[in-house]
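Write out the 3D structure for:
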Amino acid sequence: MYNNVRWLSRGKVLERFVECFEEIKISDDEPGYDLDLFCIPNHYVEDLEKVFIPHGLIMDRTERLARDVMKEMGGHHIVALCVLKGGYKFFADLLDYIKALNRNSDRSIPMTVDFIRLKSYCNDQSTGDIKVIGGDDLSTLTGKIRKVRLSKIEGFTQSHTAIVGFEIPDKFVVGYALDYNEYFRDLNHVCVISETGKAKYKA
């Protein structure tokens, strides 16, 4: 099970999979929502253009993803890998829903959890260099057996099912643990950063 660091828009690993569950597609001309409609921390109000995906929608969608994961895994053991830091909120919420299903359904699936930290962005641009922080290989990506070199992440083509939350336009989004130079992780909603915000928090 993959949890890309940019699970909403910026990662491309999921595009390599063969089979994909239906996802929620947000069109290029989606206007988003006015900030005034939501509770936004005052220190970020001038730094955001709009709310793109409200927190409630994220949570409802994540609950459904948990059900899809349980169905797809059958009776197999789940090895859940969190890609830090951008994936931690989604990872925690997804696992909470999976654990609830384990507690309240006729069947349950054993699960183990692991973490890896990757860094590839400076400001709003990818450096093209994916750095593993706190480890020297990506063996957990292939079930603790086969070590995968960083240069092969994009070309990873094993046949697995992709379970995707949202497909969104090519916009730089922040919030729900996604950051811009470590800021905005504390936002509940996924938002589009403004040019003011980019300038304010530029590295």
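The longest strand covers residues 111-122.
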